[in-house]
Amino acid sequence: MTPITLITGASRGIGAATARLCAQHGHRVVINYARDAQAAEEVARQVRAAGGEALTVQADVSQEADVLRLFDAIDRHWGRLTGLVNNAGVVDVAARVEDYSMARLQRMFAINVFGSFLCAREAVRRMSTRHGGAGGAIVNVSSVAARGGGANQYVDYAASKGAIDTFTIGLSKEVAAEGIRVNAVRPGITDTEIHASGGQPDRAWNLASQIPMQRPGHPEEIAQAICWLLSDAASYTTGALLDVGGGR
């Protein structure tokens, strides 16, 4: 059976790299994006040029109606999902907790946490043998920041990823006997566009000296770990939090 894998936030960075790599491994790839249709279509073009199959679907994962529409589109186009990568996420400008607005906190947790819950809920409803599914795999993209805490910069982001770690462990136990494996990859500092969205486009390389390997990661290196966890090679792995952070 050809794997059908949804990757949220797949128009750039780790998500785009994962879409390309999954396609190379024979997955039909659903490229979800929130706003940048042109970037998503470019990733889809790359997948198709390499001989893969791609479907692009716009949806804001923090909105339940959008998530329902996203999964309905997959159902109608290809049928039951077999893989989910909860990759969509945001950061904000560096700030201390005492300066956070409620709007900032709501946005952070709505996308990074609630979006992952909503997508996982819909995936389980399709994958679980309890619901007539054939099983599947869910990979949540967390961060090593969940261990470090993000003091003086991104405590809210780190806390949202800490929630993802706990969510991964709990859900993995809940569905382990229903054919679904649930794991998380925790990237370290990775050279992607997300740093620019937080106002620090050069942050990855500026922090290279703090990384034991003395460089930031590449999106393709994180994608390798995600694709392994999706694959049958990881058939006895569930509830794992896999650090891919250059030793940090």
From TrEMBL:
Q: InterPro entries from the xrefs?
A: KR_dom (IPR057326), NAD(P)-bd_dom_sf (IPR036291), Sc_DH/Rdtase_CS (IPR020904), SDR_fam (IPR002347)
Domain spans labelled Ketoreductase? 3-210
The record's annotation in Gene3D superfamilies points to:
NAD(P)-binding Rossmann-like Domain
Q: Which keywords belong to this entry?
A: Oxidoreductase
The cross-references to PROSITE patterns, in alphabetical order and at most eight, read: ADH_SHORT (PS00061)
Does Oxidoreductase show up as a keyword for this record? yes
Q: Which GO terms describe its molecular function?
A: oxidoreductase activity, acting on CH-OH group of donors
Q: Which residues cross the membrane?
A: none
Any Pfam family from its record, for instance, is adh_short_C2
- Family membership: Belongs to the short-chain dehydrogenases/reductases (SDR) family.
NCBIfam families the record matches:
PRK06947.1
Q: What is this protein called?
A: NAD(P)-dependent dehydrogenase (Short-subunit alcohol dehydrogenase family)
